[in-house]
Amino acid sequence: MTKKAIVISAINLRSGGTLTILQECLKFVSKNLTERYKVVALVHKKDMFPQFKDIEFIEFPDSVKSYFFRIYYEYFYFKKISKKLNPYLWISLHDMTPNVISKIKAVYCHNPTPFCKISLKALKEPKFILFNLFYKYIYKVNIHTNDFVIVQQEWLREKFSQMFEIPKGKIIVAYPETEILIHNNTLELNNNKEKTIFIDKNFLFVSWSIFN
Measured in whole angstroms, how far is the alpha carbon of residue 158 from the centre of its chain? Predict the structure, then answer.
């Protein structure tokens, strides 16, 4: 029987805390899911992850050269990949909601910049203002095509719901040691888990413990 596919999109995660999130995600997937699923990770460079022999990596070295490449991959090229892989779950770990075909789609939005107030001091930093406006647009594109949007804090859930008119039931707050059970578009919380997981056993479980 052909395995269902899970796609983990993380072509822009290369260092720091976001790379740690990707590493922990891959560890869990490698340990728990690769026997049942075909797992494909889209990354900047696949030689950064030599320990994961049971995960298929597709690398995009040009993804960090400019936002032109990021936009091309997310909104055009990834649709071709999704048609080929026919994924059960596509999860994007870096803010942008790609134009893909998948039974379940989720995006992790970790940049709070669009919700920061622009002070008089910030007016001296035009790059910050442009980045603020740019991220509002980036978040908005395709966001309603997601089954779930994952954020870091409750206040971000409020902001995403207000700014993008997303039902709060579709916005998961990634509190440490919290398991979210998603079934038929309802959520139940269990605060006894410690690992980051993406797993389906008739349900879709998403448990996040990603910040120290």
Answer: 19
Q: What is the DSSP letter of 135?
A: H
Provide the residue ranges of all domains of the chain, joining segments of one domain with +: 4-208
Q: How confident is the model over 171-197, as pLDDT tens digits?
A: 888 754 434 343 433 333 343 443 333
pTM of the model: 0.77
d(CA 46, CA 51): 10
CB 122 within 8 A of CB 79: no
Phi, psi (rounded to 5 degrees) for 126? -60, -30
Q: Which residues pair with 206 in a beta bridge?
A: 180, 198
Contact 174, 152 (CB under 8 A): yes
CB 3 within 8 A of CB 36: yes
Cα–Cα distance list, 88 to 56, 116, 188, 189 (Å): 16, 35, 21, 23
Residues 147/173, Cβ–Cβ less than 8 Å: no
Q: Are 38 and 90 in contact (CB under 8 A)?
A: no
Instruction: Name which CATH class applies to 4-208.
Output: alpha beta
Q: Distance (Å, rounded) from C-alpha 200 to C-alpha 11?
A: 24
